[in-house]
User: Which sequence fits this backbone?
């Protein structure tokens, strides 16, 4: 009997660990709902780094980037919380926190640089460009 309870206890612990792993997998996955070419992730809590990235929205080969205002050609891919972005009223660009953005618009987002491989990106985006993880402003619905 002792070995049967160890097996069932080990199985329960394994199931719990798997549940924790699968729950943690929701953070960081792409939500298919936002506009094409807008990098995004499923983010639950409005917490995270608060550095500031400012620049102009650049749309290159169907992907949206933020171009540095001080270093010409320096791009970052903003990875937005999926629940904070959407389609614009005219279908051009994307909406972030209810404000429309398209090519050339100035944008400022809080967050942190996250390297080039942190988040899954839309296929339109250059996988070698550094990513900027945008900190959520509001909790996910």
Assistant:
């Amino acid at each position: 009997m002792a070995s049967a309870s160890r097996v069932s206890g080990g199985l329960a612990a394994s199931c719990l660990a798997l549940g924790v792993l699968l729950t943690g997998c929701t953070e960081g996955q792409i939500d298919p709902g936002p506009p094409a070419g807008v990098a995004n992730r499923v983010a639950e809590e409005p917490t995270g780094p608060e550095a500031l990235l400012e620049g102009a929205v650049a749309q290159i080969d169907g992907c949206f980037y933020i171009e540095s205002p001080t270093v010409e050609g320096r791009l970052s891919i903003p990875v937005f919380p999926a629940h904070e972005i959407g389609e614009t009223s005219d279908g051009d660009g994307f909406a972030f926190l209810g404000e429309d953005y398209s090519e050339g618009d100035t944008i400022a987002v809080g967050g942190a640089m996250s390297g080039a491989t942190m988040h899954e990106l839309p296929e339109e985006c250059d996988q070698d460009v550094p990513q900027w993880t945008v900190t959520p402003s509001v909790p996910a619905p």
Remarks:
- The chain has one helix and nine strands.
- The longest strand covers residues 51-60.
- Helices lie at 2-24.
